[in-house]
Design brief:
The complex is a heterodimer of chains A (262) and B (251).
Chain A: H1 2-31, H2 40-50, H3 55-77, H4 86-124, H5 127-133, H6 138-175, H7 181-189, H8 194-220, H9 226-259
Helix pairs in contact in A: 1-6, 1-8, 2-6, 3-4, 3-6, 4-6, 4-7, 4-8, 4-9, 6-8, 8-9
Chain B: E1 5-14, E2 17-27, E3 32-37, H1 43-50, E4 58-63, E5 66-67, H2 73-80, E6 83-86, H3 98-109, H4 114-127, H5 143-155, E7 161-165, H6 173-190, E8 193-198, H7 201-207, E9 210-215, E10 218-224, H8 225-230, H9 235-241
Parallel strand pairs in B: 3-8, 3-9, 6-7, 7-8
Antiparallel strand pairs in B: 1-2, 1-4, 4-5, 9-10
Helix pairs in contact in B: 3-4, 3-5, 4-5, 5-6, 6-7
Classes of the chains: A mainly alpha (262), B alpha/beta (251).
């Protein structure tokens, strides 16, 4: 019993420490925003790594997300809901929820782990100390460009994901469900509200920040050798996934209930 | 205001492990000082304390009369620009070429044009006899080449102080000798104050003018290279001979 309580307490404490570090790192990164103009090269490099490098993964995830959303909606409609709403349901669910959340989860796994492993390796091989010795602030040089790049690229990837998912849904609707293209496309236009897209993109921006922060905080605080780096990568993915899921709910409530709600 | 490094009553522990237990040391400007000691005696920790990479628990460190202990980040960065450090594993940045590694300090802290930064970085690589390695990535270099590239990165900014953390560890005897001679030559040419941490006596006698021997967190010998070499008894004699029986514990 005591062992269970001890472990539970240890986990809670370690989570609080991680969240505290995350908050402190966010403040340091915001302070380093003044150096954005002279860090453009570093930011563009990270945008390529985070954005372009994630396109194949987002492509595959989104095609099947759109396809599944279409099949499920078609099955749920049965004969109760007219098929002209098929495109509406797919578009709304993709733009509001599936596009931003699934993109954040798959990109978070790829990019969060990669940032934590790269910075963790730099930490354990004294490369971060070498930067400090050269009077180069590691937060300004390493964390801030990754943070800015992720905040820019996650919304971009989400727009790409939304488009691919809707195309995947259209493909399945036409070829597997015998729905006429015009019916599906008319459904997309029906009840379309720009705020659905904006809401999804605001969520994506926040998810980008979470992914970069999780990777950086665990990478910069990793210890030990290869095992420490592996653990940092694992913890970064776990933290980023959990925070994306929790924040997704909070943002849904704030954006769609308080801001865009009636 | 005294030039050089003055360490007074320096203490540092990690949890219950006491690493430095009241170290007093004075390193004059322009001196080539070697810090000797068995592995785990706090030699590298002392280097990191001097440049503020670690915080001391107690005691003071002054560099050219400025108190390092308790310095704010901005002051620390200003102070570190007078220093360079050659890390044990080289600590070259994996994602950059050797030339970019060597030129980073200049591109971050000066407004020199890229062509001038490349010229200076190439000159530093020439000085360490790596004229053709500029476009290579650190992973493509041998251990000795990585150390030399790290030396080039350390000298390119023409610092007042160069710290060497185990510069010959992991290298074969011939490469070690080449690195030792290079360190000596660079120190002579640049006139920098150097502080070399090592347990390799061949390296120590090649690069050092004065020695300090650390054991159990304290300096137990301080003197010139000649005094160390001519010692007939005591801990420095035991350390030079590599004798496991004596006042310095073997474990």
């Amino acid at each position: 019993m005591w062992i269970v309580l001890e472990r539970l307490g240890g986990s809670v404490l370690s989570t609080l420490v991680d969240l505290g570090r995350l908050g402190l790192l966010l403040l340091q990164i915001l302070r380093a925003f003044l150096a954005i103009p002279r860090s453009m090269g570093l930011i563009f490099r990270q945008m390529l790594i985070i954005g372009n490098g994630s396109i194949p993964l987002v492509l595959v995830t989104s095609v099947f997300t759109g396809a599944v959303a279409t099949v499920q909606a078609h099955y749920q409609f049965q004969d109760y809901v007219p098929l002209r709403f098929l495109g509406t349901v797919v578009a709304k669910s993709v733009m509001i929820e599936l596009g931003p959340a699934l993109t954040a989860l798959v990109v978070g796994a790829r990019v969060g782990a990669s940032i934590a492993a790269e910075l963790g390796t730099m930490k354990v091989t004294e490369q971060i100390d070498a930067l400090e010795m050269m009077a180069i602030d590691p937060v300004r040089y390493l964390a801030m460009p990754r943070f800015v790049a992720a905040c820019i690229m996650l919304p971009m990837l989400t727009i790409f994901s939304d488009a691919v998912a809707i195309l995947g849904g259209l493909f399945v609707a036409i070829n597997a469900l015998d729905v006429a293209p015009k019916i599906f496309i008319d459904g997309l236009r029906l009840l379309f509200q720009a705020q659905d897209l904006w809401g999804g993109l605001i969520k994506a921006l926040c998810f980008g920040a979470i992914i970069a922060l999780s990777g950086c905080v665990h990478g910069l605080n990793s210890r030990g050798g290869a095992a420490g780096v592996g653990e940092a990568a694992m913890r970064a993915v776990v933290m980023s996934s959990l925070l994306v899921l929790v924040t997704n709910y909070v943002l849904a409530a704030v954006i769609f209930q308080l801001i865009f709600g009636n | 205001m005294a030039d050089g490094i003055t360490i007074k009553n320096l203490h540092k522990s990690f949890g219950s492990l006491v690493v430095l237990d009241g170290v007093d040391l004075r390193i004059e400007r322009g001196e080539q000082r070697v810090i000797l000691g068995r592995s785990g005696q706090g030699k590298s920790v002392m280097l990191k304390l001097i440049v503020g990479l670690l915080e001391a628990d107690q005691g003071t460190i002054e560099v050219d009369g400025e108190l390092v202990t308790g310095m704010k980040r901005k002051q620390l960065y200003a102070m570190r620009r007078r220093f360079s450090m050659v890390f044990q594993g080289g600590a070259l940045f994996d994602s950059m070429t050797v030339l970019e590694n060597v030129g980073l300090g200049l591109s971050e802290h000066t407004k020199l044009p890229t062509s001038e930064i490349h010229r200076r970085a190439k000159r530093a690589l020439d000085m360490v006899e790596l004229p053709d390695a500029g476009e290579s990535l650190p992973a493509e270099l041998s251990g000795g080449m990585r150390k030399r590239a790290s030396l080039a990165r350390a000298i390119v900014t023409e610092p007042d102080y160069i710290l060497y953390d185990e510069p010959t560890t992991g290298l074969d005897p011939i490469t070690s000798d080449a690195i030792n001679r290079l360190i000596r030559q660079l120190d002579d040419e640049l006139g920098a104050t150097s502080l070399v941490v090592t347990h390799d006596m061949t390296s120590a006698f090649t690069v050092g003018e004065r020695f300090a021997l650390l054991n159990h967190g304290e300096v137990i010998f301080e003197g010139t290279a000649d005094e160390a070499r001519s010692a007939t008894e005591g801990p420095i004699k035991q350390f030079i001979d590599g004798d496991s029986t004596g006042s310095i514990d073997s474990f």
